[in-house]
C-alpha cells in the first residue's frame, strides 16, 4: 500500500540541528524567520501532501491524462487538489514577496517540495514547472513582462512550461528549428513544434505561459543562435485577464511508462505571438537559469520517491508474515514472523532508508547554499555559495534520482510478487521515478556536466568548497570518541575521491574521452562521500544528544543506526568506484562499433 | 459580534495512545500533539460566520502548558484574530476550565462561545454545558448546523433519535459536532500572518480561578486485549455455548 507520513522529525533535525537556522536568520532577508513558523509551514504542507495529494496518486496513475481536440483533461480530483494547493499559497513558498510570493528560504521550500513529490509526483510537475519558469522570467524578463506575468504565475493562477526539445533534438539543442520573426509592435511570431512538454496543456489553470527556445532570422548556427521567448496560451488583455487564444496548440500527449497523471505534450506553434526574454541569441542563459532550478527540483523528486517507497516497504515488512527468523522464531504466537526479521529484508529497508535520509541531508546542504547565493550580504559570500550550488547541482540531480529509482525497485523487492502487481501501488513508484533520471538532462549528461564543466570551472575553485569542509571535519574529528570510527571510513572514501579527481583532471586534460568514461562513476563517488560526510556529522549531533534526549532518544538512536549502516555497508562502494575509474577508458572503448 | 473559541491541545488523532508504564496516565512525552478536532470544527465555524459578516472578531483561547501557543497559532492561521493563553502546568478539569472561560467571557463580552463538543483525549463532553450553566446562557450542543439572525441562533443538534432544532437567544454556547463543517487547511500566507497576530498569556490566578484538581486518578490501564473467537460446528453447538458458557440465553 502507498504509505506516507511526512518525516517531519528528520526534516527538523536537518534544518535545525544538522545545518542550523543561524546561517539563514543571520541574513537580512530571513531575520524574522523562526523555527515555530517553519514548523507550522511544514506541518500544514504535510497535511496537503498526505491528505490531498497522496489519495490521488494511484487513481491518477490508473486514469492518466486524456487529450481530445487539443484539450487535455487531468485525472479526476486533480482540479480540486490544485485549487486547494493554489488557494493555500503552496505555489509560492519561496516566491518573490514583491510579486506576492511568501519569500521563505529555499531550504524550507525544498522540504515542502519533497513532501509534495512523495505524495504525488505527477501532480508536483504542474506547480514545479511554473516555479522554474518564474525564476527564468524573474532573472531575464523585461520589467513589463515581469509585472504582467509574475504575480499570476507566483499565485498559481497561471502555470508555466519550458519548451526546449524538438523531435530531432533533445540533448543537442543547437539543432533546434523553431523560428521567431520580429513584428512591428516589438513582439515576435513563432512557428515550430516542440515535444516532451510537461504541463504543456491541462485544465488546472486559466492560462499557460510557455518559455520557448527558438531562432531569430539572423541567428548564428548552433547553440549560440538560440533565443528565449515567452508565448502565452491566451494573450493577456489590458487588464491582465486572459483574452484571445494564441496560436499554440497541443497536438497530442505521450503514452509513457509512468508519471501518467502529468500531461507530456506535443505543442505546435502556428504564428504564435511571443515576446523576447533576455537578449537575442542569449536564450540558453535564460534557459539554464530555469534548468538549474529544475535540476535541483528533479533531484528532490528522487528523494521524495525514496522516502515514500521506503515507508511503504517498511509498513509491509512489519505486517507481512513469512518464514521464521534465522535466529529462532520471534513471534511464536503467529503462524510466521513478519518479514522485517530477515537480514536481507533489513538490508533493503536500510538501503532505502539511508538513501532518503542521506539525500535529505545533502539536499538541505545545497539548498541552504542556494539561499546564501541569493541573500548573503557580501558579493564574495554569494559567489562562493553559487559556485558550490553549481558544483552540486548535477550531483543532486543524478545521485538523488538514481537512488530514488533504486529505492523504488528495492521497495518492489520487499513486497515480493505482490510488489509487481498494481494493487499494492509500489510498482508505480518505480515507473514514476524512472523519468527523473532522464529529463532535465539525462544523468549521463549530469555526470559530464560535473567532470567537464563544474570540476574544472575557475581552476577547480568550486570543488574546493566541497573538499575543504570535508577535510577540515575529518581533521577535527579523527579522535572524536563518538564518531572517530566513522571518520576513519569517511577518510578512506574521501581519499578515493581525491585520487579519482586527480586522475580525471590529468587524463581528462589530454583525452576528454577519459573524463567521459569516468564521469558517471565519479559522480556517484562524489555523491557517496557527500552523503557519508552528512551521516557522520549527523551522527556527531545525535551522539551528543542521545543520552539526555528523553522521549526523543529513539530518534537519535535511529539516526546513529542509519549512519552506521551507511558507513559500514554503502560507503565502501567508494573504493570499488575508484578502482573502476582508475582502470581508464580502455575496456569501455575497446570494442569495434560493429561488435555491438 | 465577538466570538470566543476555546481550543484544546491534545494527542493527535492519528497517534495510537499508550498508557504510561506506572499507570498514572497516558504517555504524552514525544508524542505528536494537535488541536482537538472538534475545536478545529468550532474555529472553522467561527471563521465562516466572520466571513459571512455575522461576526466581527474571533478570540481563540487555550488553557494549559506553554506549547498550547502552537495550538493557538493554528487557530490564528485558520482565521482567528487574536489569542489568549491561560498558562498552567495543571491539566484543569472541566469545571475549572468552565470557570476560567466564564471569567474570560466576563472580560471579553463575546456574543457567542463556539467550542468542540468534547476533547478526544478524555472525552468528557462537559465543559460547554458547565459553562452554559455558570453563565446562565442558552446552549446548543452537538451542533451540525448553525444559523444566525436577529439575535437568535438556530442550531440543528445531533441527538440519538435524529436531528433536533433549537432556537437560542444570544448570548449562547454552541458545541460543535463532527458534521458541522469540514475545517479548511490553513493557507501559507495566513500561517505567516498568524505569527504577527496578538497572543496574550495570563495565569489562572489573574482570572481568580483555582485550578487545583478535585479528582484523583487512581489508575489508567489499557483495555483488555480481545480474545480470539472459536468457530462452532453447528447452530445447536452455538446455542449450547451461549447457554452454558456465555450464559446469555
Blueprint (SSEs and pairs):
The complex is a heterodimer of chains A (596) and B (249).
Chain A lengths: L7 H11 L3 H4 L9 H19 L3 H7 L2 E3 L2 E3 L4 H10 L18 H14 L1 H20 L2 H13 L2 E6 L15 E4 L5 E11 L8 E8 L12 E6 L1 E3 L5 E4 L2 E6 L10 E14 L5 H37 L23 H33 L3 H37 L1 H4 L5 H9 L8 H12 L6 H17 L6 H27 L1 H34 L7 H18 L2 H10 L3 H4 L7
Parallel strand pairs in A: 3-6
Antiparallel strand pairs in A: 1-2, 4-5, 5-11, 6-7, 7-11, 8-9, 10-11
Helix pairs in contact in A: 1-10, 3-6, 6-7, 6-9, 6-10, 7-8, 7-9, 9-10, 9-11, 9-13, 10-11, 10-17, 10-18, 11-13, 11-14, 11-15, 11-17, 14-17, 15-16, 16-17, 16-19, 17-18, 17-19
Chain B lengths: L1 E5 L2 E3 L21 E3 L1 H15 L5 E8 L3 H11 L3 E6 L6 H15 L3 E5 L10 H9 L2 E12 L2 E8 L2 E8 L2 E5 L11 H7 L4 E4 L32 H10 L5
Parallel strand pairs in B: 1-4, 1-6, 4-5, 5-11, 6-10, 7-10
Antiparallel strand pairs in B: 2-3, 7-8, 8-9
Helix pairs in contact in B: 2-5, 3-4
Function (chain B): The electron transfer flavoprotein serves as a specific electron acceptor for other dehydrogenases. It transfers the electrons to the main respiratory chain via ETF-ubiquinone oxidoreductase (ETF dehydrogenase).
Cofactor (chain B): AMP
Subunit structure (chain B): Heterodimer of an alpha and a beta subunit.
**What oligomeric state do these chains adopt?**
heterodimer
Low-pLDDT ranges of chain A: none
User: What fraction, in percent, of the residue positions of chain A are helical?
Assistant: 55-70%
Radius of gyration of chain A, Cα only, in angstroms?
Answer: 24 Å
**Biggest interface, which chains?**
A-B, 22 and 17 residues
Radius of gyration of chain B: 21 Å
- The top-level CATH class of chain B is Alpha Beta
The overall pLDDT average of chain A reads: 95
Helix-and-strand structural type of chain A: alpha+beta
Tertiary shape of chain B = globular
The CATH topology assignment of chain B is: Rossmann fold
The N- and C-terminal alpha carbons of chain B lie at a distance of 59 Å
**Portion of residues within helices of chain B:** 25-40%
Number of strands of chain B: 11
Number of DSSP helical runs of chain A: 20
Question: First CA to last CA of chain A: what distance?
Answer: 42 Å
- Output the strand order for the largest sheet of chain B: 9-8-7-10-6-1-4-5-11
Give the percentage of residues in beta strands of chain A.
Answer: 5-15%
User: What's the order of the H and E elements of chain B?
Assistant: EEEHEHEHEHEEEEHEH
Q: Structural class of the helix and strand makeup of chain B?
A: alpha/beta
For the biggest sheet of chain B, the summary is: 9 strands, mixed
Amino acid at each position: 500500500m502507498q504509505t506516507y507520513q511526512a518525516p517531519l522529525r528528520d526534516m527538523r533535525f536537518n534544518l535545525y540541528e544538522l545545518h542550523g537556522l543561524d546561517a539563514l536568520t543571520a541574513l537580512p532577508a530571513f531575520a524574522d524567520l523562526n523555527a515555530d513558523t517553519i514548523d507550522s509551514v511544514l506541518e500544514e504542507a504535510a497535511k496537503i501532501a498526505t491528505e490531498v495529494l497522496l489519495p490521488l496518486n494511484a487513481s491518477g496513475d490508473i486514469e492518466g491524462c486524456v487529450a481530445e481536440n487539443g484539450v487535455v483533461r487531468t485525472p479526476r480530483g486533480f482540479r480540486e487538489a490544485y485549487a486547494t494547493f493554489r488557494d493555500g499559497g503552496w505555489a509560492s513558498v519561496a516566491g518573490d514577496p514583491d510579486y506576492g510570493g511568501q519569500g521563505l528560504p529555499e531550504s524550507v521550500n525544498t522540504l515542502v517540495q519533497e513532501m509534495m513529490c512523495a505524495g504525488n509526483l505527477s501532480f508536483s510537475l504542474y506547480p514545479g514547472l511554473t516555479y522554474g519558469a518564474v525564476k527564468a522570467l524573474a532573472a531575464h524578463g523585461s520589467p513589463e513582462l515581469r509585472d504582467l506575468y509574475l504575480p499570476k504565475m507566483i499565485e498559481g493562477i497561471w502555470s508555466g512550461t519550458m519548451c526546449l526539445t524538438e523531435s530531432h533534438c533533445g540533448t543537442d539543442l543547437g539543432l533546434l528549428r523553431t523560428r521567431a520573426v520580429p513584428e512591428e509592435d516589438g513582439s515576435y511570431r513563432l512557428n515550430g513544434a516542440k515535444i516532451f512538454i510537461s504541463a504543456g496543456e491541462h485544465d488546472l489553470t486559466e492560462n499557460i505561459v510557455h518559455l520557448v527556445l527558438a531562432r531569430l532570422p539572423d541567428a548564428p548556427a548552433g547553440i549560440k543562435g538560440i533565443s528565449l521567448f515567452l508565448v502565452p496560451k491566451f494573450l493577456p488583455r489590458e487588464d491582465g485577464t486572459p483574452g484571445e487564444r494564441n496560436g499554440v496548440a497541443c497536438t497530442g500527449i505521450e503514452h509513457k511508462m509512468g508519471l501518467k497523471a502529468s500531461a507530456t505534450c506535443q505543442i505546435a506553434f502556428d504564428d504564435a505571438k511571443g515576446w523576447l526574454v533576455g537578449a537575442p541569441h542569449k536564450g540558453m542563459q535564460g534557459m539554464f537559469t530555469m534548468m538549474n532550478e529544475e535540476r535541483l527540483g528533479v533531484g528532490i523528486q528522487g528523494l521524495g520517491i525514496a522516502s515514500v517507497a521506503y515507508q511503504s516497504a517498511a509498513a509491509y515488512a512489519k505486517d507481512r508474515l513469512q518464514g521464521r527468523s534465522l535466529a529462532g522464531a520471534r513471534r511464536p504466537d503467529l503462524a510466521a514472523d513478519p518479514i522485517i526479521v530477515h537480514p536481507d529484508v533489513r538490508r533493503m529497508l536500510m538501503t532505502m532508508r539511508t538513501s532518503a535520509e542521506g539525500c535529505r541531508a545533502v539536499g538541505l546542504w545545497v539548498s541552504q547554499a542556494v539561499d546564501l547565493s541569493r541573500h548573503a550580504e557580501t558579493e564574495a559570500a554569494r559567489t562562493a555559495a553559487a559556485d558550490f550550488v553549481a558544483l552540486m547541482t548535477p550531483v543532486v540531480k543524478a545521485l538523488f534520482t538514481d537512488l530514488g529509482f533504486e529505492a523504488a525497485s528495492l521497495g518492489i523487492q520487499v513486497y515480493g510478487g505482490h510488489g509487481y502487481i498494481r494493487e499494492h501501488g509500489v510498482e508505480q513508484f518505480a515507473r514514476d521515478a524512472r523519468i527523473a533520471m532522464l529529463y532535465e538532462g539525462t544523468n549521463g549528461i549530469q555526470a559530464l556536466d560535473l567532470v567537464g564543466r563544474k570540476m574544472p570551472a575557475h581552476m577547480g575553485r568550486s570543488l574546493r568548497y566541497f573538499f575543504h569542509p570535508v577535510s577540515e571535519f575529518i581533521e577535527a574529528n579523527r579522535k572524536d570518541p563518538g564518531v572517530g570510527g566513522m571518520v576513519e571510513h569517511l577518510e578512506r572514501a574521501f581519499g578515493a575521491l581525491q585520487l579519482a579527481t586527480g586522475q580525471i583532471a590529468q587524463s581528462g586534460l589530454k583525452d576528454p574521452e577519459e573524463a567521459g568514461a569516468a564521469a558517471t562513476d565519479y559522480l556517484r563517488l562524489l555523491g557517496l562521500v557527500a552523503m557519508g560526510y552528512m551521516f557522520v556529522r549527523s551522527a556527531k549531533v545525535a551522539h551528543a544528544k542521545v543520552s539526555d534526549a528523553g522521549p526523543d532518544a529513539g530518534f537519535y538512536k535511529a539516526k546513529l543506526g542509519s549512519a552506521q549502516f551507511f558507513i559500514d555497508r554503502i560507503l565502501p562502494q567508494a573504493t570499488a568506484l575508484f578502482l573502476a575509474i582508475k582502470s581508464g577508458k580502455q575496456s569501455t572503448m575497446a570494442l569495434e562499433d560493429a561488435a555491438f | 459580534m465577538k466570538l470566543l473559541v476555546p481550543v484544546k491541545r491534545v494527542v493527535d488523532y492519528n497517534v495510537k495512545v499508550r498508557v504510561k508504564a506506572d499507570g498514572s496516565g497516558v504517555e504524552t512525552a514525544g508524542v505528536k500533539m494537535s488541536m482537538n478536532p472538534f475545536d478545529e470544527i468550532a474555529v472553522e465555524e467561527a471563521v465562516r460566520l466572520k466571513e459571512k459578516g455575522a461576526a466581527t472578531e474571533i478570540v481563540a483561547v487555550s488553557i494549559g502548558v506553554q506549547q498550547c501557543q502552537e495550538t493557538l497559532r493554528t487557530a490564528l492561521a485558520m482565521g482567528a484574530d487574536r489569542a489568549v493563553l491561560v498558562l498552567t502546568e495543571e491539566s484543569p478539569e472541566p469545571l475549572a476550565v468552565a470557570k476560567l472561560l466564564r471569567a474570560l467571557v466576563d472580560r471579553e463580552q463575546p456574543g457567542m462561545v463556539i467550542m468542540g463538543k468534547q476533547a478526544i483525549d478524555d472525552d468528557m463532553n462537559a465543559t460547554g454545558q458547565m459553562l452554559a450553566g455558570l453563565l446562565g446562557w442558552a446552549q446548543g450542543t452537538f451542533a451540525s448546523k448553525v444559523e444566525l439572525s436577529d439575535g437568535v441562533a438556530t442550531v440543528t443538534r445531533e441527538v440519538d433519535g435524529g436531528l433536533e432544532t433549537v432556537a437560542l437567544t444570544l448570548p449562547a454556547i454552541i458545541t460543535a459536532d463532527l458534521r458541522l463543517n469540514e475545517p479548511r487547511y490553513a493557507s501559507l500566507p495566513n500561517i505567516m500572518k498568524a505569527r504577527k497576530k496578538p497572543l496574550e498569556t495570563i495565569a489562572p490566578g489573574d482570572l481568580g480561578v483555582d485550578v487545583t484538581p478535585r479528582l484523583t486518578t487512581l489508575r489508567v490501564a489499557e483495555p483488555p486485549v480481545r480474545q480470539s473467537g472459536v468457530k462452532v460446528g453447528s447452530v445447536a453447538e452455538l446455542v449450547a455455548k451461549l447457554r452454558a458458557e456465555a450464559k446469555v440465553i
